[in-house]
Amino acid sequence: MYYETLKLASQAIRRNAMRSFLTLLGIVIGVGAVIAMVTIGNGTTAKVQAEMAKLGSNLLFVVPGQLGPRRSSSTAKPFNSRDVQALRSELRNVRAVAPVASGSATVIYGSESRTSTVIGTDNGYFITQAIDVRDGRKFLEGEVRSGLGACLIGETVRKEVFGALNPVGRKIRVNRISCQVVGLLSEKGQSGFGMDQDDVVIMPLRTYQRRIAGNSDIGRIYVSAVSSSVSSKVQRDIEWLLRQRRNIGPKEDDDFAVADMQQIVASQTATTSILTMLLGAVAGVSLLVGGIGIMNIMLVSVTERTREIGIRLAIGALESQVLLQFLVEAFVLSLIGGVVGVMLGLSLAGLASYAMDIPFLVDFRIVFIAFAFSGLVGVVFGYFPARHAAHLNPIDALRHE
Q1: Are residues 244 and 325 in the same domain?
Q2: What is the pLDDT of residues 120-170, one digit of tens each?
Q3: Whole-angstrom distance, CA of residue 188 vs CA of residue 185
Q4: Most buried in the list 98, 142, 226, 388, measured by CB within 10 Å?
Q5: Based on the domain organization, do 225 and 156 belong to the same domain?
Q6: Domain-located, residue 72
Q7: Residue 70 phi/psi, 5° resolution?
Q8: Does a structural domain hold residue 153?
Q9: What is the number of domains present in the chain?
Q10: Are 231 and 57 in contact (CB under 8 A)?
Q11: How does the average pLDDT of the chain come out, rounded?
Q12: Do both 270 and 202 map to the same domain?
């Protein structure tokens, strides 16, 4: 019986091939969209985690103001060189402390120019950010102390400004100052936030402060602990020390924030996971639309085949057999749509992963759920038309034209 029912359902689908194909589209798009969105989201999350992991789990960020909405960093008092010196001299279990002041500036060499990020810092920055120097050298102590016009550039700046030339030893202009390129940074690519980490010029902090920023402000401080096991203690020590230096009372809120890499990774992972699930849910709505399409087509099919149904009932077919026939037809339509949707979703996710340079991470649970849900949609939305067909009066059905 089941074989005959499946055979009849297949014949009905083939008999109206174009209509069946259009009915499938809703399921195909729904399943494909869910799988593609979730797979791309998983790849994006993995890339963010990988980029953060390059800096290590023992990196701490110190910024003026609060990271939340309570206080803006633009109104909080910036750090200064004395704060950095205090952190270096009084903190324990620390590998490096790096002050950072940054902004954008125009980099010029010959007839070529480019607007890039300019960072004022010292050699501690290369340790905290895990940056290697591919060619040339880091800053000399005299360059850092006296604020000479020396700089290191990223790969993007080299390509856009110097082309095929070796930049080491040549002089560039950064806004209005002359700066000798003493080193070329190793290529890092896009960050987890979508920024080009190679579109950068790094110069001594004093050079940046005096000749570009025009002030002695320090926008943020990076602190690298010796290991992740002592990061929490180092974070508490930083908070205590800065509260003392910034004269913050016992009942007053901090006017600065200290966050470790583990907190930032957790925050970014949670954000991307929520976005992934939201996109998957939105895409899942099209599955419901596809189910409504199946119900509509099945109702049309019942109307067209009323006389056929009446003949079957008249010669002894049971209502349950007619119900099963139309349910199987809707179920088969949904499953075919589910199979095609899975292939489409994985293909789109693979192409997007290649184009966006993110890992191709397939969550087979989502694939199974999307496929199973497509079958469930066929059964649920196919039940009402099937029930309507099974309850037709045989005499009225035979009289139907």
Answers
A1: no
A2: 999 999 988 888 999 999 999 999 988 888 999 999 999 999 988 999 999
A3: 9
A4: 98
A5: yes
A6: no
A7: -70, -40
A8: yes
A9: 2
A10: yes
A11: 80
A12: no
